[in-house]
Amino acid sequence: MIRSLGVLREVLRGRRIPLWVEVVENRKDVPQRVVQLAREWGAKRIYANMEYEVDEARRDVRMLEEGMKRGVGVEVVHDTCVVPPGRCVTKATGKMFAVYSPWYKAYLQALSQDPALLTLRPPPAANPESTLTTRAALFTSALPSLPPGKTLTAEETLTLHELYPAGSQAAAAQLASFLTQKGRQYAADRNTPSISGTSGLSPHFSAGTLSARTAVFHARAANSGKLSGGQSGLDMWISEVAWRDFYRHVLAAFPHVCMHKPFKPSFASILWLAPSSPLHSTRFSAWKAGRTGFPLVDAAMRQLAKEKFMPNRLRMVVASFLCKDLHIDWRLGEQYFAEQLVDGDFASNNGGWGFASSAGVDPQPYFRVFNPTAQGLTWDADGAYVRTWVEELRDYRGDVWKITEQERRCYGYPREIVEHAVQRRVAIEMYKRGIERGKGVV
Ligand SMILES: Cc1cc2nc3c(=O)[nH]c(=O)nc-3n(C[C@H](O)[C@H](O)[C@H](O)COP(=O)(O)OP(=O)(O)OC[C@H]3O[C@@H](n4cnc5c(N)ncnc54)[C@H](O)[C@@H]3O)c2cc1C
To answer: Is the CB of 341 under 6 A from ligand 1?
Structure first.
Protein backbone atom coordinates (compact mmCIF):
# COMPACT_ATOMS: atom_id res chain seq x y z
CA MET A 1 0.00 0.00 0.00
CA ILE A 2 2.84 2.36 0.81
CA ARG A 3 4.58 1.50 -2.46
CA SER A 4 1.30 2.14 -4.29
CA LEU A 5 1.01 5.53 -2.61
CA GLY A 6 4.46 6.33 -4.02
CA VAL A 7 3.32 5.41 -7.54
CA LEU A 8 0.08 7.37 -7.11
CA ARG A 9 2.01 10.41 -5.90
CA GLU A 10 4.06 10.41 -9.13
CA VAL A 11 1.05 9.86 -11.40
CA LEU A 12 -0.83 12.71 -9.73
CA ARG A 13 2.22 14.94 -9.81
CA GLY A 14 2.23 14.50 -13.59
CA ARG A 15 -1.18 16.21 -13.48
CA ARG A 16 0.05 18.82 -10.99
CA ILE A 17 -2.20 17.32 -8.29
CA PRO A 18 -0.53 16.98 -4.88
CA LEU A 19 -0.86 13.84 -2.76
CA TRP A 20 -0.66 14.72 0.91
CA VAL A 21 -0.17 11.82 3.31
CA GLU A 22 -0.85 12.43 6.96
CA VAL A 23 -0.17 10.06 9.85
CA VAL A 24 -2.40 10.72 12.85
CA GLU A 25 -1.42 8.79 15.99
CA ASN A 26 -4.80 8.87 17.68
CA ARG A 27 -7.77 7.63 15.67
CA LYS A 28 -10.11 10.05 17.45
CA ASP A 29 -8.15 13.05 16.10
CA VAL A 30 -8.58 12.09 12.43
CA PRO A 31 -11.85 13.98 11.66
CA GLN A 32 -10.61 17.22 13.22
CA ARG A 33 -7.26 17.04 11.47
CA VAL A 34 -8.74 16.36 8.02
CA VAL A 35 -11.22 19.23 8.30
CA GLN A 36 -8.48 21.51 9.64
CA LEU A 37 -6.28 20.72 6.61
CA ALA A 38 -9.19 21.34 4.23
CA ARG A 39 -9.69 24.76 5.79
CA GLU A 40 -5.98 25.59 5.63
CA TRP A 41 -5.93 24.70 1.94
CA GLY A 42 -9.17 26.54 1.16
CA ALA A 43 -10.93 23.32 0.10
CA LYS A 44 -14.71 23.53 0.11
CA ARG A 45 -15.49 19.85 0.06
CA ILE A 46 -14.00 16.56 1.25
CA TYR A 47 -14.77 13.33 -0.64
CA ALA A 48 -14.04 9.99 0.98
CA ASN A 49 -14.72 6.34 0.36
CA MET A 50 -16.94 4.63 2.92
CA GLU A 51 -15.34 2.03 5.18
CA TYR A 52 -17.96 -0.20 6.79
CA GLU A 53 -16.11 -1.29 9.94
CA VAL A 54 -17.78 0.27 12.98
CA ASP A 55 -14.87 2.45 14.17
CA GLU A 56 -14.22 3.72 10.66
CA ALA A 57 -17.92 4.47 10.04
CA ARG A 58 -18.04 6.33 13.36
CA ARG A 59 -14.93 8.31 12.36
CA ASP A 60 -16.65 9.43 9.15
CA VAL A 61 -19.80 10.50 10.97
CA ARG A 62 -17.58 12.63 13.23
CA MET A 63 -15.89 14.08 10.16
CA LEU A 64 -19.32 15.01 8.77
CA GLU A 65 -20.22 16.74 12.07
CA GLU A 66 -16.86 18.49 12.22
CA GLY A 67 -17.26 19.64 8.60
CA MET A 68 -20.74 21.01 9.30
CA LYS A 69 -19.43 22.96 12.29
CA ARG A 70 -16.56 24.47 10.32
CA GLY A 71 -18.18 25.08 6.93
CA VAL A 72 -16.58 22.25 4.95
CA GLY A 73 -18.82 19.84 3.01
CA VAL A 74 -18.11 16.14 3.53
CA GLU A 75 -19.31 13.51 1.09
CA VAL A 76 -18.73 9.84 1.80
CA VAL A 77 -19.38 7.54 -1.17
CA HIS A 78 -19.79 3.78 -1.62
CA ASP A 79 -17.04 3.39 -4.15
CA THR A 80 -15.27 0.28 -2.86
CA CYS A 81 -18.36 -1.73 -3.84
CA VAL A 82 -19.94 -2.15 -7.26
CA VAL A 83 -23.45 -2.02 -5.78
CA PRO A 84 -23.85 0.10 -2.62
CA PRO A 85 -24.84 -1.84 0.53
CA GLY A 86 -28.56 -1.73 1.19
CA ARG A 87 -29.51 -2.12 -2.50
CA CYS A 88 -29.65 -5.94 -2.57
CA VAL A 89 -32.36 -6.90 -0.08
CA THR A 90 -35.03 -9.58 0.20
CA LYS A 91 -38.40 -8.73 -1.33
CA ALA A 92 -40.25 -10.11 1.69
CA THR A 93 -38.47 -8.22 4.48
CA GLY A 94 -36.44 -5.52 2.76
CA LYS A 95 -33.43 -6.76 4.74
CA MET A 96 -29.99 -7.97 3.71
CA PHE A 97 -29.74 -11.63 2.62
CA ALA A 98 -27.79 -14.04 4.78
CA VAL A 99 -27.23 -16.38 1.81
CA TYR A 100 -25.10 -15.59 -1.24
CA SER A 101 -27.12 -17.08 -4.19
CA PRO A 102 -30.31 -14.99 -3.85
CA TRP A 103 -28.15 -11.99 -2.98
CA TYR A 104 -26.20 -12.48 -6.24
CA LYS A 105 -29.46 -12.53 -8.23
CA ALA A 106 -30.42 -9.23 -6.61
CA TYR A 107 -26.91 -7.88 -7.35
CA LEU A 108 -27.21 -8.76 -11.06
CA GLN A 109 -30.68 -7.23 -11.14
CA ALA A 110 -29.40 -4.00 -9.56
CA LEU A 111 -26.68 -3.79 -12.22
CA SER A 112 -29.11 -4.34 -15.08
CA GLN A 113 -31.56 -1.76 -13.69
CA ASP A 114 -28.94 0.90 -12.99
CA PRO A 115 -26.26 1.01 -15.71
CA ALA A 116 -24.58 3.94 -13.94
CA LEU A 117 -23.24 1.43 -11.39
CA LEU A 118 -20.95 0.04 -14.06
CA THR A 119 -19.92 3.33 -15.64
CA LEU A 120 -16.25 4.20 -15.30
CA ARG A 121 -15.23 7.70 -14.24
CA PRO A 122 -12.55 9.60 -16.16
CA PRO A 123 -9.30 10.37 -14.30
CA PRO A 124 -9.09 13.83 -12.70
CA ALA A 125 -8.24 16.75 -14.99
CA ALA A 126 -4.76 18.24 -14.68
CA ASN A 127 -4.10 21.46 -12.76
CA PRO A 128 -2.30 24.32 -14.47
CA GLU A 129 1.51 24.20 -14.50
CA SER A 130 1.62 27.14 -12.07
CA THR A 131 0.17 24.92 -9.27
CA LEU A 132 3.64 23.49 -8.77
CA THR A 133 4.84 26.91 -7.63
CA THR A 134 1.72 28.48 -6.12
CA ARG A 135 1.08 25.36 -4.01
CA ALA A 136 4.67 24.17 -3.78
CA ALA A 137 4.43 23.17 -0.10
CA LEU A 138 1.70 20.65 -0.90
CA PHE A 139 4.06 18.70 -3.13
CA THR A 140 6.52 18.01 -0.32
CA SER A 141 4.58 15.38 1.63
CA ALA A 142 6.66 12.32 2.52
CA LEU A 143 5.36 8.76 2.52
CA PRO A 144 5.03 7.09 5.91
CA SER A 145 7.50 4.42 6.93
CA LEU A 146 6.38 0.92 7.90
CA PRO A 147 4.57 0.82 11.24
CA PRO A 148 6.52 -0.44 14.28
CA GLY A 149 6.66 -4.23 14.38
CA LYS A 150 5.92 -4.49 10.65
CA THR A 151 9.37 -3.97 9.22
CA LEU A 152 10.61 -6.36 6.53
CA THR A 153 13.99 -7.98 5.98
CA ALA A 154 15.84 -7.16 2.75
CA GLU A 155 14.91 -10.58 1.38
CA GLU A 156 11.22 -10.12 2.24
CA THR A 157 11.22 -6.69 0.64
CA LEU A 158 12.70 -8.10 -2.55
CA THR A 159 10.23 -11.01 -2.69
CA LEU A 160 7.25 -8.73 -2.18
CA HIS A 161 8.53 -6.21 -4.76
CA GLU A 162 8.89 -8.95 -7.34
CA LEU A 163 5.56 -10.63 -6.63
CA TYR A 164 3.40 -7.56 -6.24
CA PRO A 165 4.12 -4.67 -8.60
CA ALA A 166 2.53 -1.55 -7.14
CA GLY A 167 0.15 0.97 -8.63
CA SER A 168 -2.96 1.10 -10.77
CA GLN A 169 -1.13 0.74 -14.08
CA ALA A 170 0.31 -2.58 -12.93
CA ALA A 171 -3.20 -3.60 -11.82
CA ALA A 172 -4.71 -2.69 -15.20
CA ALA A 173 -2.05 -4.69 -17.05
CA GLN A 174 -2.60 -7.73 -14.80
CA LEU A 175 -6.38 -7.53 -15.25
CA ALA A 176 -6.07 -7.33 -19.05
CA SER A 177 -3.66 -10.25 -19.15
CA PHE A 178 -5.91 -12.39 -16.90
CA LEU A 179 -9.04 -11.66 -18.93
CA THR A 180 -7.40 -12.50 -22.24
CA GLN A 181 -5.34 -15.48 -21.08
CA LYS A 182 -6.48 -17.35 -17.96
CA GLY A 183 -10.04 -16.05 -17.64
CA ARG A 184 -11.69 -18.59 -19.92
CA GLN A 185 -10.11 -21.51 -18.04
CA TYR A 186 -10.89 -20.00 -14.63
CA ALA A 187 -13.80 -22.34 -13.78
CA ALA A 188 -11.65 -25.40 -14.45
CA ASP A 189 -8.34 -24.19 -12.99
CA ARG A 190 -9.19 -21.97 -10.03
CA ASN A 191 -8.94 -24.69 -7.38
CA THR A 192 -5.69 -26.30 -8.53
CA PRO A 193 -2.95 -24.58 -6.54
CA SER A 194 -0.03 -25.72 -8.72
CA ILE A 195 -1.57 -24.03 -11.79
CA SER A 196 -2.26 -20.51 -10.36
CA GLY A 197 -5.35 -20.25 -12.53
CA THR A 198 -6.77 -17.27 -10.65
CA SER A 199 -6.21 -13.57 -11.32
CA GLY A 200 -3.94 -12.82 -8.34
CA LEU A 201 -5.59 -9.39 -8.26
CA SER A 202 -6.64 -9.38 -4.61
CA PRO A 203 -3.57 -7.33 -3.47
CA HIS A 204 -4.68 -4.61 -5.90
CA PHE A 205 -8.30 -4.71 -4.74
CA SER A 206 -7.12 -4.48 -1.17
CA ALA A 207 -4.61 -1.65 -1.77
CA GLY A 208 -7.22 0.30 -3.75
CA THR A 209 -5.23 0.21 -6.99
CA LEU A 210 -8.04 -1.65 -8.77
CA SER A 211 -11.71 -1.04 -8.13
CA ALA A 212 -14.25 -3.85 -8.30
CA ARG A 213 -16.25 -1.66 -10.69
CA THR A 214 -13.33 -1.43 -13.15
CA ALA A 215 -12.71 -5.17 -12.88
CA VAL A 216 -16.34 -6.12 -13.52
CA PHE A 217 -16.66 -3.53 -16.31
CA HIS A 218 -13.73 -5.05 -18.24
CA ALA A 219 -14.72 -8.65 -17.43
CA ARG A 220 -18.19 -7.97 -18.86
CA ALA A 221 -16.63 -6.55 -22.04
CA ALA A 222 -14.41 -9.65 -22.36
CA ASN A 223 -17.51 -11.80 -21.78
CA SER A 224 -19.34 -10.49 -24.89
CA GLY A 225 -21.02 -7.77 -22.86
CA LYS A 226 -22.57 -10.27 -20.42
CA LEU A 227 -22.35 -10.51 -16.63
CA SER A 228 -23.76 -14.03 -16.71
CA GLY A 229 -24.86 -16.43 -19.42
CA GLY A 230 -21.61 -15.85 -21.32
CA GLN A 231 -18.41 -17.90 -21.18
CA SER A 232 -18.33 -20.14 -18.08
CA GLY A 233 -14.88 -19.04 -16.80
CA LEU A 234 -15.64 -15.34 -17.05
CA ASP A 235 -19.20 -15.79 -15.68
CA MET A 236 -17.67 -17.46 -12.65
CA TRP A 237 -14.95 -14.85 -12.19
CA ILE A 238 -17.55 -12.05 -12.20
CA SER A 239 -19.52 -13.95 -9.56
CA GLU A 240 -16.37 -14.40 -7.45
CA VAL A 241 -15.60 -10.68 -7.54
CA ALA A 242 -19.17 -10.22 -6.29
CA TRP A 243 -18.32 -12.20 -3.11
CA ARG A 244 -16.21 -9.21 -2.16
CA ASP A 245 -19.25 -6.93 -2.38
CA PHE A 246 -21.37 -9.55 -0.59
CA TYR A 247 -19.13 -9.58 2.50
CA ARG A 248 -19.05 -5.76 2.55
CA HIS A 249 -22.85 -5.71 2.44
CA VAL A 250 -22.87 -8.23 5.30
CA LEU A 251 -20.56 -5.99 7.34
CA ALA A 252 -22.72 -2.93 6.68
CA ALA A 253 -25.95 -4.76 7.59
CA PHE A 254 -24.65 -6.82 10.53
CA PRO A 255 -21.95 -4.67 12.18
CA HIS A 256 -21.63 -7.09 15.11
CA VAL A 257 -19.42 -9.27 12.87
CA CYS A 258 -16.64 -6.74 13.28
CA MET A 259 -16.93 -6.72 17.05
CA HIS A 260 -15.27 -10.06 17.57
CA LYS A 261 -18.64 -11.83 17.50
CA PRO A 262 -19.86 -14.72 15.34
CA PHE A 263 -22.66 -13.92 12.88
CA LYS A 264 -24.86 -16.49 14.62
CA PRO A 265 -25.09 -15.66 18.35
CA SER A 266 -25.49 -19.30 19.41
CA PHE A 267 -21.98 -20.04 18.08
CA ALA A 268 -20.52 -17.76 20.76
CA SER A 269 -20.93 -20.55 23.33
CA ILE A 270 -18.62 -23.07 21.66
CA LEU A 271 -15.80 -24.03 24.01
CA TRP A 272 -12.60 -23.81 22.02
CA LEU A 273 -9.31 -25.18 23.28
CA ALA A 274 -8.23 -22.92 26.17
CA PRO A 275 -5.54 -20.48 24.96
CA SER A 276 -3.66 -20.99 28.25
CA SER A 277 -3.24 -24.74 27.69
CA PRO A 278 0.14 -26.07 26.47
CA LEU A 279 -1.72 -28.06 23.79
CA HIS A 280 -3.09 -24.79 22.40
CA SER A 281 0.31 -23.25 22.00
CA THR A 282 1.83 -26.44 20.48
CA ARG A 283 -0.98 -26.75 17.97
CA PHE A 284 -1.22 -23.06 17.06
CA SER A 285 2.56 -22.79 16.59
CA ALA A 286 2.65 -25.91 14.38
CA TRP A 287 -0.21 -24.53 12.25
CA LYS A 288 1.48 -21.15 11.80
CA ALA A 289 4.86 -22.71 11.01
CA GLY A 290 3.42 -25.27 8.55
CA ARG A 291 4.58 -28.21 10.67
CA THR A 292 1.32 -30.09 11.31
CA GLY A 293 2.35 -33.19 9.33
CA PHE A 294 -0.59 -32.65 6.92
CA PRO A 295 1.17 -31.85 3.62
CA LEU A 296 -1.52 -29.62 2.08
CA VAL A 297 -1.97 -27.56 5.25
CA ASP A 298 1.79 -27.19 5.71
CA ALA A 299 2.45 -26.23 2.08
CA ALA A 300 -0.27 -23.56 2.22
CA MET A 301 0.91 -22.11 5.55
CA ARG A 302 4.49 -21.95 4.27
CA GLN A 303 3.36 -20.18 1.10
CA LEU A 304 1.54 -17.69 3.32
CA ALA A 305 4.65 -17.07 5.41
CA LYS A 306 6.84 -16.51 2.34
CA GLU A 307 4.55 -14.87 -0.21
CA LYS A 308 1.90 -13.44 2.12
CA PHE A 309 -0.69 -15.06 -0.16
CA MET A 310 -2.62 -18.32 -0.25
CA PRO A 311 -5.07 -19.61 -2.89
CA ASN A 312 -8.74 -19.55 -1.91
CA ARG A 313 -9.31 -23.32 -1.70
CA LEU A 314 -6.36 -23.66 0.67
CA ARG A 315 -7.54 -20.76 2.82
CA MET A 316 -10.70 -22.82 3.37
CA VAL A 317 -8.73 -25.99 4.09
CA VAL A 318 -6.32 -24.46 6.62
CA ALA A 319 -9.10 -22.45 8.29
CA SER A 320 -11.26 -25.54 8.67
CA PHE A 321 -8.23 -27.45 9.97
CA LEU A 322 -7.53 -24.85 12.65
CA CYS A 323 -11.09 -24.86 14.01
CA LYS A 324 -12.25 -28.39 13.36
CA ASP A 325 -9.08 -30.47 13.67
CA LEU A 326 -7.13 -28.38 16.17
CA HIS A 327 -10.18 -26.87 17.93
CA ILE A 328 -8.64 -23.41 18.08
CA ASP A 329 -10.94 -20.37 18.06
CA TRP A 330 -11.35 -19.18 14.45
CA ARG A 331 -10.84 -15.56 15.55
CA LEU A 332 -7.17 -16.29 16.26
CA GLY A 333 -6.78 -17.61 12.74
CA GLU A 334 -8.63 -14.61 11.35
CA GLN A 335 -6.24 -12.29 13.18
CA TYR A 336 -3.18 -14.22 12.00
CA PHE A 337 -4.37 -14.05 8.38
CA ALA A 338 -5.05 -10.31 8.72
CA GLU A 339 -1.49 -9.78 9.94
CA GLN A 340 0.07 -11.92 7.22
CA LEU A 341 -1.95 -11.52 4.01
CA VAL A 342 -0.83 -9.08 1.33
CA ASP A 343 -4.52 -8.81 0.36
CA GLY A 344 -5.76 -8.53 3.98
CA ASP A 345 -9.29 -7.17 3.89
CA PHE A 346 -11.51 -7.19 6.95
CA ALA A 347 -14.84 -8.06 5.29
CA SER A 348 -13.52 -10.85 3.02
CA ASN A 349 -11.26 -12.31 5.70
CA ASN A 350 -14.01 -12.30 8.30
CA GLY A 351 -16.43 -13.77 5.75
CA GLY A 352 -13.97 -16.51 4.78
CA TRP A 353 -13.32 -17.47 8.39
CA GLY A 354 -17.04 -17.35 9.07
CA PHE A 355 -17.60 -19.78 6.21
CA ALA A 356 -14.89 -22.24 7.23
CA SER A 357 -15.64 -22.15 10.95
CA SER A 358 -19.41 -22.37 10.25
CA ALA A 359 -19.98 -19.34 12.49
CA GLY A 360 -20.55 -16.83 9.66
CA VAL A 361 -23.06 -16.00 6.92
CA ASP A 362 -23.86 -18.72 4.38
CA PRO A 363 -21.37 -21.06 6.04
CA GLN A 364 -20.19 -24.60 5.58
CA PRO A 365 -22.52 -26.61 7.92
CA TYR A 366 -20.66 -27.30 11.17
CA PHE A 367 -20.79 -31.07 10.70
CA ARG A 368 -19.02 -30.82 7.30
CA VAL A 369 -15.34 -31.08 8.00
CA PHE A 370 -12.75 -30.82 5.22
CA ASN A 371 -10.47 -33.84 5.17
CA PRO A 372 -7.05 -32.26 4.44
CA THR A 373 -5.66 -35.43 2.86
CA ALA A 374 -8.70 -35.99 0.62
CA GLN A 375 -8.52 -32.31 -0.40
CA GLY A 376 -4.87 -32.83 -1.31
CA LEU A 377 -5.68 -35.90 -3.37
CA THR A 378 -8.38 -34.00 -5.26
CA TRP A 379 -6.58 -30.71 -5.90
CA ASP A 380 -2.90 -31.68 -5.85
CA ALA A 381 -2.98 -35.35 -6.83
CA ASP A 382 0.65 -35.46 -8.03
CA GLY A 383 1.87 -33.46 -5.01
CA ALA A 384 3.41 -30.74 -7.23
CA TYR A 385 2.17 -27.91 -5.00
CA VAL A 386 3.28 -29.71 -1.82
CA ARG A 387 6.78 -30.29 -3.25
CA THR A 388 7.06 -26.59 -4.12
CA TRP A 389 6.49 -25.49 -0.54
CA VAL A 390 7.43 -28.35 1.78
CA GLU A 391 11.20 -28.49 1.45
CA GLU A 392 11.53 -31.81 3.28
CA LEU A 393 9.42 -33.54 0.61
CA ARG A 394 10.96 -31.88 -2.45
CA ASP A 395 13.01 -34.97 -3.31
CA TYR A 396 10.51 -37.53 -2.07
CA ARG A 397 9.45 -39.54 -5.11
CA GLY A 398 6.59 -41.51 -3.55
CA ASP A 399 2.92 -40.54 -3.25
CA VAL A 400 2.84 -37.65 -0.73
CA TRP A 401 -0.73 -38.57 0.22
CA LYS A 402 0.35 -42.04 1.33
CA ILE A 403 3.68 -41.21 2.97
CA THR A 404 4.50 -43.69 5.77
CA GLU A 405 5.80 -42.97 9.28
CA GLN A 406 9.17 -44.40 8.40
CA GLU A 407 9.44 -42.20 5.27
CA ARG A 408 8.48 -39.14 7.30
CA ARG A 409 11.31 -39.88 9.73
CA CYS A 410 13.72 -40.49 6.90
CA TYR A 411 12.90 -37.18 5.14
CA GLY A 412 12.65 -35.18 8.38
CA TYR A 413 8.97 -34.38 7.84
CA PRO A 414 6.78 -34.24 11.01
CA ARG A 415 4.21 -36.85 12.02
CA GLU A 416 0.55 -35.84 11.82
CA ILE A 417 -0.09 -33.65 14.86
CA VAL A 418 -3.61 -35.06 15.32
CA GLU A 419 -5.69 -37.93 13.97
CA HIS A 420 -8.18 -36.35 11.58
CA ALA A 421 -10.98 -38.92 11.97
CA VAL A 422 -10.89 -38.60 15.78
CA GLN A 423 -10.69 -34.78 15.86
CA ARG A 424 -13.53 -34.52 13.37
CA ARG A 425 -15.83 -36.42 15.75
CA VAL A 426 -14.68 -34.34 18.72
CA ALA A 427 -15.31 -31.14 16.76
CA ILE A 428 -18.84 -32.10 15.77
CA GLU A 429 -19.64 -32.86 19.41
CA MET A 430 -17.96 -29.61 20.53
CA TYR A 431 -20.03 -27.58 18.06
CA LYS A 432 -23.27 -29.45 18.86
CA ARG A 433 -22.93 -28.83 22.59
CA GLY A 434 -21.84 -25.22 22.17
CA ILE A 435 -24.72 -24.36 19.85
CA GLU A 436 -27.16 -26.07 22.22
CA ARG A 437 -25.77 -24.08 25.16
CA GLY A 438 -25.94 -20.88 23.13
CA LYS A 439 -29.56 -21.27 22.07
CA GLY A 440 -31.60 -18.28 23.11
CA VAL A 441 -28.52 -16.06 23.21
CA VAL A 442 -29.20 -12.87 21.24
C1 LIG B 1 -10.37 -18.00 5.43
C2 LIG B 1 -10.37 -17.05 4.26
C3 LIG B 1 -9.80 -15.79 4.40
C4 LIG B 1 -9.81 -14.89 3.32
N5 LIG B 1 -9.24 -13.63 3.49
C6 LIG B 1 -9.27 -12.74 2.47
C7 LIG B 1 -8.72 -11.45 2.62
O8 LIG B 1 -8.22 -11.05 3.70
N9 LIG B 1 -8.73 -10.62 1.54
C10 LIG B 1 -9.27 -10.99 0.34
O11 LIG B 1 -9.25 -10.20 -0.62
N12 LIG B 1 -9.84 -12.20 0.18
C13 LIG B 1 -9.85 -13.08 1.19
N14 LIG B 1 -10.40 -14.33 1.01
C15 LIG B 1 -11.07 -14.63 -0.25
C16 LIG B 1 -10.20 -15.30 -1.35
O17 LIG B 1 -9.48 -16.37 -0.83
C18 LIG B 1 -9.22 -14.32 -2.02
O19 LIG B 1 -9.91 -13.15 -2.42
C20 LIG B 1 -8.60 -14.95 -3.27
O21 LIG B 1 -7.91 -16.11 -2.93
C22 LIG B 1 -7.68 -13.95 -3.93
O23 LIG B 1 -7.01 -14.52 -5.04
P24 LIG B 1 -7.28 -14.00 -6.51
O25 LIG B 1 -7.22 -12.52 -6.54
O26 LIG B 1 -6.38 -14.75 -7.41
O27 LIG B 1 -8.80 -14.42 -6.71
P28 LIG B 1 -9.69 -14.71 -8.01
O29 LIG B 1 -10.15 -16.11 -7.89
O30 LIG B 1 -9.04 -14.28 -9.25
O31 LIG B 1 -10.98 -13.81 -7.71
C32 LIG B 1 -11.05 -12.44 -8.11
C33 LIG B 1 -11.40 -11.57 -6.94
O34 LIG B 1 -12.69 -11.93 -6.43
C35 LIG B 1 -12.73 -11.72 -5.02
N36 LIG B 1 -12.98 -13.00 -4.35
C37 LIG B 1 -12.78 -14.25 -4.84
N38 LIG B 1 -13.17 -15.17 -3.93
C39 LIG B 1 -13.62 -14.49 -2.86
C40 LIG B 1 -14.15 -14.87 -1.60
N41 LIG B 1 -14.33 -16.16 -1.26
N42 LIG B 1 -14.48 -13.90 -0.71
C43 LIG B 1 -14.33 -12.58 -1.03
N44 LIG B 1 -13.84 -12.17 -2.22
C45 LIG B 1 -13.50 -13.10 -3.12
C46 LIG B 1 -11.35 -11.19 -4.62
O47 LIG B 1 -11.40 -9.78 -4.57
C48 LIG B 1 -10.46 -11.70 -5.77
O49 LIG B 1 -9.30 -10.94 -5.94
C50 LIG B 1 -10.41 -15.25 2.09
C51 LIG B 1 -10.99 -16.53 1.96
C52 LIG B 1 -10.96 -17.41 3.04
C53 LIG B 1 -11.59 -18.77 2.86
So the answer is: yes
Band (pLDDT 50/70/90 cuts) for residue 147 is: confident
- How is domain 265-438 classified at the architecture level of CATH? Orthogonal Bundle (1.10)
Output the pTM of the full model.
0.97
Ligand 1, from 238, 240, 361, 370: best to mutate by most atoms within 8 Å of Cβ? 240
pLDDT of the residue at 150: 86
CATH fold for domain 1-77 = Rossmann fold (3.40.50)
Q: What is the pLDDT of residue 57?
A: 94
For residue 146, give every residue at least 6 positions away whose Cβ sits within 8 Å of its Cβ, in sequence order, or none: 2, 152
Average pLDDT over residues 352-366: 96
Every domain of the chain and the residues it spans = 1-77, 81-120+150-253, 265-438
379 labelled catalytic: no
- Tell me, yes or no, if 353 is annotated catalytic: yes
The pLDDT assigned to 149 comes to 85
Instruction: Work out the average pLDDT over 258-263.
Output: 95
HEC assignment per residue over 365-406: CCCCCCCHHHHHHHHCCCCHHHHHHCHHHCCCCCCHHHCCHH
Is 353 close to ligand 1, i.e. is its CB under 6 Å away?
yes
The arithmetic mean of pLDDT across residues 348-366, rounded, is 96
Ligand 1 center to residue 216 CA distance, Å?
Answer: 15
Kindly report the CATH number that applies to the domain delimited by 81-120+150-253.
Answer: 1.25.40.80
CA 312 to centroid of ligand 1, rounded, Å? 6
Please confirm, yes or no, whether 330 is among the known catalytic residues: yes
